[in-house]
Amino acid sequence: MAINEKMLEEILNKYPAKVKRNRKKHILIRDSAQGNQEIEANTRTIPGIVTNRGCAFAGCKGVVLGPLKDMVHIVHGPVGCAYYSWLTRRNKARTDDPKKNFLTYCVSTDMQESDIVFGGEKKLSRMIDEVVEILKPNAITISATCPVGLIGDDIQSVAKAARAKHGLNITAYSCEGYKGVSQSAGHHIANNGLMENIIGEGDREDPPGKYTINILGEYNIGGDSWEVERVLKEIGYDIQVVMTGNGSYEKLKNAHVAQLNLVQCHRSINYIADMLQTKYGTPWLKVNFIGIRATIESLRNMALYFGDESLINRTEEVIARELAEIEPQLEPFKKVCSGKTAFCFVGGSRGHHYQGLYEELGITTVLAGYEFAHRDDYEGRDVLGRIKSDADSKNIPDLHVTPDEGRYRLKIPVERMEELQKKIPLNNYDGMINEMVDGSVVVDDLNHYETDEFIRLLKPDIFSSGIKDKYIPQKMGIPTKQLHNYDYSGPYAGFRGAVNFARDVSMGFCTPTWNYIVPPWKDSPLLEGSIEQCSDDTCVEEV
Ligand code: CFM
Q: What angle do CA 139, 484, 191 make, to 5 degrees?
């Protein structure tokens, strides 16, 4: 069943008038006849509403910095923040040097009450000394959690002093959880820090191969990056660094040598992509390695960028060979999946990326959205100049970069760049909404109540989301597929990943488990209520 404006209005009518006005701007029904449809995004969640968003610390340390494996990532704060950001994201890493993979460690200053009262700077600098002495990492990051900012510990000065003392790249990130409306602010803080302190530190001047690339916004969840790298290497690409899945300080510091930057997750890394272009003249190409068609298109666009006949031919050979391998494997799963519908609600890029893969399996996405993406991830980068900045978005200033005097090089001539931009998404991203089918629903920062209501109306066959929201649909008897950490599975990227994904969702459809679930509202009474607008004479004064 499709949803119409009247049904949407009924859902929203349960909210108080002010909340309704707010939420209405975050939801739309796709209608291509209207051209560009606007959606509100990256604004504060309304207090009291159960959101699935994370915090700035999660975006900085958890998402962008955390996967860099030869560094120790110190969490300055109470131990809980460190513990809950430790290994839950499944950003896998392979040890190049057995003594230089620190991802399995949880390193925290474990601030106690006395540190909150008297300050934690000394404890932090002692910890850095211990980390250098015991673990000997290639570099160290320090991420601040909420109380650090509240009590005013100067972690930047501590890092600076430690850097001088140990002669090691030690940097601090003031990414207190409250720094933004979601984890998105933390991405920005991490992007600025990596650009300012690590990228370009290396002394390499030339790329290691003829076709040298970086992969940005790929975090190797469930091994995704390894599957992508396998294919790229077979075609003949040299990968300088993946940012940041299975990445390392040693490779990241020479990221400036690449001839092209691929951007998988636009939301979390677009700042670095832009800054690399400004500073070193390296263009970026929006790719999507989720889904077979999207993977093929991305590979062809890359080959077109380099424009080399032998690379183009080799790309086609690898595509043909991969397709011959996976197509027979996909067949039985397609039969199971055909005609089904899905909700695809993930963080800041997968809500878009997985729709193509679903479609290839015969599954229609009837609702999609992001927890914390910005309007450009929904509407495309054309909207960038029209986004009004507010106090929250000004919180994290853009880093001002200028062309590097010695290293800035135009990778391709200006005319060729202009030609290519007409054909492929070079330095551009068109966003999610443009690719969605008419009648489908787009929701920003979907909450618990709306999840219930949209499931009731649209009855999807599968709900793809995260750990926080998956239990609601499960209790309603609907299979879920976690698209954050993949529920212990993966990889889902590239050719072989598509088969894994098809197998996993098919298992979800086929298991009889869901028929045994009787949600509590089926056999116990449900109380319904609404909230009255408060006016002076109805308000009870607090005593
Ligand atoms: Fe990018 Fe990500 Fe995502 Fe993201 Fe994330 Fe993630 Fe995500 Mo969870 S970087 S925006 S902050 S693709 S952890 S690997 S799955 S919400 S859609």
A: 35
Q: Is-cis flag, bond preceding 244, omega within 30?
A: yes
The structural domains of the chain, ordered by start, are 56-178 (3.40.50.1980)
**Paired tokens of 22:** 């707010």
Return the pLDDT at 214. Answer: 98
Does the predicted model carry a pTM greater than 0.90? yes
Ligand 1 binding residues, C-beta < 6 A: 59, 63, 89, 183, 217, 219, 221, 265, 267-268, 346-350, 484
Active site residue 89: yes
pLDDT digits (tens, 9 = 90+) for 468-488: 999 999 988 999 999 999 999
SS3 assignment, position 244: strand
How remote is the CA of residue 119 from the centroid of ligand 1, in Å?
33
Q: Residue 486 Cα, ligand 1 centroid: separation in angstroms?
A: 12
- Give 267 Cα–ligand 1 centroid separation in angstroms: 8
Q: What is the spatial distance between Cα 74 and Cα 322, in angstroms, rounded to a whole number?
A: 41
* C-alpha 450 to ligand 1 mean position (Å): 22
Ligand 1 nearest atom to the CA of residue 89, by list position: 13
The yes-or-no answer on residue 58 being catalytic is yes
* Residue 515 pLDDT greater than 90, yes or no: no
CA 508 to chain centre: 24
539 catalytic residue (yes or no): no
What one-character-per-residue DSSP string does 305-365 give?
HHT-HHHHHHHHHHHHHHHHHHHHHHHHHHHHHTT-EEEEEESSSHHHHHHHHHHHTT-EE
**What's the pLDDT tens digit per position in 194-252?**
999 999 999 999 999 999 999 999 999 999 999 999 999 999 999 999 999 999 999 99
Of 73, 187, 188, 266, which one is the catalytic site residue? 187
Q: For a substitution probing ligand 1, which of 42, 61, 63, 446 has the most ligand atoms within 8 Å of its CB? A: 63
